[in-house]
Amino acid sequence: MTTNASKFCEELARQYADLFVSDPDYAYSAARCSPAGLAATMTEALAKGSGNKEGKGIQRTCKTLGVKYTYTAIRAYLKGEA
Description:
Layout: H1 4-22, H2 27-32, H3 35-48, H4 56-65, H5 71-78
Helix pairs in contact: 1-3, 1-4, 3-5
């Protein structure tokens, strides 16, 4: 069974993979972690209410999945409430 959190994490990993090779702002992250690892960390933090949504990866993921780009909407989606 695929949950919203797993869909979000998978899409976020795809976005990070693209950003790691195409955006110099992500060079630091690319040198220190994998796209999937960073996506898992960020998805978990957002679900707990402690993550920062201000990044291209989160923004792109929300757009792709049709999730409003707010903390409330992201948390609701991750919990399966949206």
